[in-house]
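pasting for the record
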Amino acid sequence: MRVLQLAKRSVLAAAAVCVALTGCGDSGPEVPFNPTGTTADLAAMNATFESSTFASFSTFSLLFDAALGPSPLITASAAALDIRASHKAGMRVAAMRSAKRMAAIMSPKPSGSPRPGGGFSALAAAIPPEAAGKTFIYDLGTGGYVVSDREPLASNTVRFILYAVDPVTFAPVDPLDETGYVDIIDLSSGSTSAARVRVFSGDTEYLNYLVSLSSTATSGRISMIGFVTDGATQANIDLRSTLTSSAGLTLTYSVDVPSRDVSIDLALAASGFDPETSTIEVTLDMRGPNGWLLLSGEFTVDGGTLTVRSNGNLFATITSTGTTDPVITGTDGQPLADEEVEALQGIFLLTGEAFTSFDQMFAPVGSVLEPAA
């Protein structure tokens, strides 16, 4: 997702061993690669995350946790986001920054902890009683949300009003201009913490997704399933991140744009619990009416290389140091056409921006998924 100009620019986590090559429609190896069409597909997908409503949601959701008090609904997620971080930090840096936060949420408890023998934290979730059914409004004086006297909601729901933000600074416009609202609905049950997030502006529902977190003695898993739209184009998302004591952190990420018959499946894997020293394995599969591209490779702290195949045939390589723009070359070092380079750059950016969108959508419910003491 191209969310480069949104207020939250941190990214989330880490990986998976392989990717399900689901594809869309009948597209596949027989469809020739059309770089101009691919760039247009990416632009349509990116646009779903570029509405003014998503910008407002991204900005204000940083404040939701604080408004819910000492026992918030997802885990101090907002405090962990660096809203000034640049996307130019690179895919690996972005992934590892978020991987640290993921590990903190789901990391094993040490031996001697309340859970016998250590193991991953049990989970508990509930909207604090004082917030249940309440609507929160933004207060310019305090720079945070306060409880309003608006009509009560269901007891498992809390609502936050959204306002217009400056498109450059992302600061709330003064005087406040109410543009929509976010409903967070606690759906937790048993050992699974879950919350649904719904974002409205006018008559349009811009986001609707379910976030859930479950754990056992040896693993923890976060999933996010739903959709995002700019009011014209809808993208369906399915993100799953897993942390296990044996395999480390994993992330699989799928996005489909039905109106364009396009699908992208991304998988990343980082072993161990120390992301800073890990090697990340990457697989990205994009299929649609403009061809089939498969990117695969690995990255370390010093950078890495992705091999690009078009319809199964070697097509290009993408090399990155993690701090500079990627270098893209054709087979045997031959130069690519400008439109081919543009399309591959857009796909490469997606590998890092997937983490960003995951973080942005996870933040509003971080407190709902707080591990029990």
